[in-house]
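Example record used in the benchmark description.
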Amino acid sequence: MTKDVADAIRERRSIRRFTSDEIPDATLSRLLEAACLAPSAGNRQPWFFYVVKNQDLRRNLAEAAFGQQFLAEAPVVIVICAEPARSAARYGERGAELYCLQDTAAAAQNLMLMAAGLGLATCWVGAFDEEAVCKVLDISSGFRPVVMVPVGYSNLAEPPKAPARRSLTEVVKVMD
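Model output (structure tokens):
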């Protein structure tokens, strides 16, 4: 059952313990479609997704992520890459160095919120050796891995409590 988007935003947590239950291909398609609906500068859509189900590849990705073994335990890891040249074609250096990363981050967030809405667990993994990830997945030089998202069903009895957040008064300045 799909949750309301506000509930998915409030309830989404970083989960690092997964069951071994497979994720149906139709569910993975829904996650990827949500990612592809993210906004992007000039509608360039500078992203590419590697859906990694293979156990050996997931183990190698865990090693490339400095030993974060939960990547190997999740039934699927989605490696989201940016394509800097696609953004640069329209926006030059700023497109290659910033916009493609922003756009890819928006795609990752959409994917993770859809996963939360479908009752799946995810975790944003940004700590990894880019070159090692490229080698593991034979990623072409035109793509840059930005985030790895393990996807699965949580193996926790209860979801983690919400972490403390900064107050709006701390992070917002209204300019009338």
